[in-house]
Amino acid sequence: MAEVRPPIVEDEKSRQLMLYRRKLNEYREIEAKLKELRRKEQEMQKEHEKSENDIKSLQSVGQIVGEVLKQLTEEKFIVKATNGPRYVVGCRRSINKELLKQGTRVALDMTTLTIMRQLPREVDPLVYKMSHEDPGNISYAEVGGLAEQIRELREVVELPLLNPELFKRVGITPPKGCLLYGPPGTGKTLLAR
């Protein structure tokens, strides 16, 4: 009779355990790859939506710029379009109606004339630059060669403000302003500062 060997349980058990670990590692790698692919898919989906919005905005009809003249009701406004006419228009629900006061610039939909959004104030860069000019700190002592003009300017501008009783006593109405004239480069702006 042939000898029957008992099955080697230890070798089979360790082999199955090793196989299980290998499969578990493969599963974890596949799971990590799946997470990465899902993340990439979300990024691509966001990029796709942005591209769709860009395409829609390029294909959409432009908007009319207008200015709010008056609020009629909670939902209706009188708006003057830049091309001239005035309209009674509605407003999108997402816009804060408290910000739509008289003089506010808005964008109107071309077809429905609905207020689509509030626009920033229109500022002409040249006018803004001129209105915000820094005059600096210049005293009359720093202006040379214009002593006579400085004296006349002080008589016209400063004297009525500092001593109005002198003009009342003499019976002269104080001047409301003065005009500085002359060729360019003679110090008019410097004196005005």
Describe this structure in words.
The structure is a single chain. By secondary structure, the protein is an alpha+beta fold. It has 3 domains: 11-54; 63-118, OB fold (Dihydrolipoamide Acetyltransferase, E2P) (Beta Barrel), CATH 2.40.50; 136-192, no CATH class. It contains 5 helices and 5 strands; from the N terminus they run αβββββαααα. It has helices at residues 9-59, 125-131, 147-162, 164-170, 188-192, and strands spanning 63-71, 77-81, 86-89, 105-109, 115-118. Strands 3-2-1-4-5 form a 5-stranded antiparallel beta sheet, with no helix packed on it. β2 (77-81) and β3 (86-89) form a beta hairpin. α3 crosses α4. The model has no long low-confidence stretch (mean pLDDT 83). It comes from Bursaphelenchus xylophilus (Pinewood nematode worm). Residues 20-61 form a coiled coil. One of its GO terms (molecular function) is ATP binding. Pfam families: Prot_ATP_ID_OB_C. Keywords: ATP-binding, Coiled coil, Nucleotide-binding.
From the alpha-carbon coordinates, what is the Rg to the nearest angstrom? 40 Å
Mean pLDDT: 83
Shape: elongated
Helix proportion range:
40-55%
Count up the domains: 3
The tally of helices reads 5
Cross-sheet strand order for the largest sheet: 3-2-1-4-5
**Main sheet makeup:** 5 strands, antiparallel
| Element-level helix/strand string | HEEEEEHHHH
Residues in β-strands, percent: 5-15%
N-to-C terminal Cα separation, in Å?
127 Å
Structural class comes to alpha+beta
Number of strands: 5
Residue ranges: pLDDT <50 for 5 or more in a row?
Answer: none
